[in-house]
């Protein structure tokens, strides 16, 4: 493991603590043979079976949530809303469910590749502003080339992803409820760097379901 890469001990801790401490760390991806990276500016913590917003709030281990119960310091990736991948880091000692959703990053390396991937994911030729290329969980996975093939991989750089320790002055950290959940959105488990322009623009609170389309009527 190269110098500066966070090891298992960093992730094998209380999930909310890890979520806060990840702010300012650098997430590196080598997906598709291209190196892209960004400073983590927004996270959300997801706990065990008592957390109604978590995938662990089930009757036990399932095929979908099994990675959350596995060894810490691995990627947990799932597909949601029919078109978005979500990247989480597994936390807590093995056997205890926990994960941190990476909600936004500030691009550092490989910005051109990130912009190209985002345009491809949108199937649009219209340009994407750098500040908007990875300011949301689905946006950042598209920008970094992260998909279900990364699920379960270690975060130590031996596979696709690695996380480098934060450097520099201490950060002003804000907290809020989580975003876009049907249940458990009230819990103050979202962490972000205050004043950072790369933080997502979504508002904390319950997910608002899209209105059903009436046949023959444009909405």
Description of the molecule:
The C terminus is likely disordered. Helix 3 crosses helix 4. The chain has 219 residues and is α+β, with helices and mostly antiparallel strands. Strands 1, 2, 3, 4, 5, 6, 7 and 9 form an eight-stranded antiparallel beta sheet that branches. It has a two-stranded parallel sheet with strand order 8-10. The protein has one domain: 3-methyladenine DNA Glycosylase, Chain A, CATH 3.10.300.
Summarize the structure in short.
By secondary structure, this protein is an alpha+beta fold. It has helices at 8-11, 15-21, 111-122, 137-144; strands at residues 26-29, 36-46, 75-80, 84-90, 99-107, 161-164, 173-176, 179-181, 190-193, 205-206.
The proportion of residues forming helix, as a percent range, comes to 10-25%
Query: How much of the residues is beta strand, in percent?
Result: 15-25%
Count of individual helical segments = 4
Distance N terminus to C terminus?
53 Å
- Tell me the series of helices and strands, N- to C-terminal: HHEEEEEHHEEEEE
CATH class: Alpha Beta
CATH superfamily: Methylpurine-DNA glycosylase (MPG)
Estimate the global geometry from the Cα principal axes: globular
**Largest pleated sheet:** 8 strands, antiparallel
Number of beta-strand segments: 10
**CATH topology (level 3) name:** 3-methyladenine DNA Glycosylase, Chain A
Mean pLDDT: 90
Indicate how many domains the architecture comprises: 1
Specify the structural class: alpha+beta
Question: What oligomeric arrangement do these chains adopt?
Answer: single chain
CATH architecture: Roll
Poorly predicted runs of 5 or more residues: 211-219
Output the radius of gyration: 17 Å
């Amino acid at each position: 493991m190269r110098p500066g890469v966070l090891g298992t001990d960093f992730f094998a801790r209380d999930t909310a603590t890890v979520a806060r401490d990840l702010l300012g760390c650098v997430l590196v991806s080598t997906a598709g043979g291209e190196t892209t990276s960004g400073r983590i500016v927004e996270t959300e913590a997801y706990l065990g079976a008592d957390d109604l917003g978590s995938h662990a709030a089930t009757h036990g281990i399932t095929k979908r949530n099994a990675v959350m119960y596995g060894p810490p310091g691995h990627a947990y990736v799932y597909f949601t809303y029919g078109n978005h991948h979500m990247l989480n880091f597994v936390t807590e000692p093995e056997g205890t469910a926990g994960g941190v959703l990476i909600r936004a990053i500030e691009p550092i390396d490989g910005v051109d590749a990130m912009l190209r991937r985002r345009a491809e994911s949108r199937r649009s030729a219209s340009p994407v502003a750098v500040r908007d290329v990875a300011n949301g969980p689905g946006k950042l996975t598209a920008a970094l080339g992260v998909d279900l093939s990364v699920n379960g991989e270690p975060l130590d750089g031996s596979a696709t992803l690695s996380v480098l320790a934060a450097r520099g002055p201490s950060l002003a950290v804000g907290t809020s409820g989580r975003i876009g959940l049907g249940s458990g959105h009230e819990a103050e488990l979202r962490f972000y760097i205050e004043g950072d322009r790369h933080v997502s623009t979504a508002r904390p609170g319950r997910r608002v379901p899209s209105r059903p389309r009436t046949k023959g009527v444009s909405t």
